[in-house]
Design goal:
The complex is a heterodimer. In chain A, the strands form 2 sheets. In chain A, strands 2, 4, 5, 6, 9, 10 and 11 form a 7-stranded mixed sheet that branches. In chain A, strands 1-3-8-7 form a 4-stranded antiparallel sheet, with no helix packed on it. Chain A contains no helices and 11 strands. Chain A is mainly beta. Chain A is globular, with a radius of gyration of 14 Å. By secondary structure, chain B is an all-beta fold. The N and C termini of chain B lie far apart (about 40 Å). At the A-B interface, strand 4, strand 5, strand 9 and strand 10 of A face strand 3 and strand 4 of B.
């Protein structure tokens, strides 16, 4: 249980195009999802917090008009990189907060489950 | 933001225990201590978390110092699949905003 998927797993696009990345919680509902970015050999950087049915909260230095986040349902959040440029090439990772998530073999609550990531390359 | 300090890298022999330290001297009373690990080209994976008491699960154990200013993640028998970057993170607000530090890159030697 507590699986998070991302689509696509990798994408290559031309400079100036927009790219949409989907994050889904497959077997639980997530009122809160998070989007991270990770450059090579660096740690994850939190970009924004996505709350179902409301506007996302962006971290300082992240352009909200460039990285559009939509969290229309309890199982889906999308990140759209608008007018992508080569410097936007990165590994984008989402996570979903599983509130009161109890698993069969392990019991833990209020933790985040991460997707497998989407590698974006902008030419 | 309360920060955590971890060694950049550690090595362990296969099938031996590994103790990964983390310092968090500015931790506040309500901060949870989370550990995640990240294998190459994958998203982070939850390992364990705790508040005050030591915690055990099927993946690892978490030993928390009495003053909570440090903690240790214990892998009881390292396998090659445990080679990853391990992140020690404080959940400051209770809202699960996880701010990743640089982590410890664990190398497991066959």
């Amino acid at each position: 249980g507590a699986v998070v998927s991302q689509h696509p797993s990798w994408v290559i696009c031309k400079s100036g195009t927009s790219v949409k990345i989907e994050c889904r919680s497959l077997d639980f509902q997530a009122t809160t999802m998070f989007w991270y970015r990770q450059f090579p050999k660096q740690s994850l950087m939190l970009m924004a917090t996505s709350n179902e049915g409301s506007k996302a909260t962006y971290e300082q230095g992240v352009e909200k008009d460039k990285f559009l986040i939509n969290h229309a349902s309890l199982t889906l959040s999308t990140l759209t990189v608008t007018s992508a440029h080569p410097e936007d090439s990165s590994f984008y990772i989402c996570s979903a907060e599983c509130e009161s998530c109890v698993l069969i073999r392990d019991s833990f609550t209020d933790t985040q489950y991460f997707g497998p990531g989407t590698r974006l390359t902008v030419l | 933001d309360a920060k955590t300090t971890q060694p950049n890298s550690m090595e362990s022999n296969e099938e031996e225990p590994v103790h990964l330290p983390c310092n968090h001297s500015t931790i506040s009373g309500t901060d949870y201590i989370h550990w995640y690990r990240q294998l190459p080209s994958q998203g982070p994976e939850y390992v364990i978390h705790g508040l005050t008491s030591n915690v055990n699960n099927r993946m690892a154990s978490l030993a928390i110092a009495e003053d909570r200013k440090s903690s240790t993640l214990i892998l009881h028998r390292a396998t090659l699949r445990d080679a990853a970057v391990y992140y020690c993170i404080l959940d400051q607000t209770g809202a699960n905003n996880l701010f990743f530090g640089t982590g410890t890159r664990l190398t497991v030697i066959p």
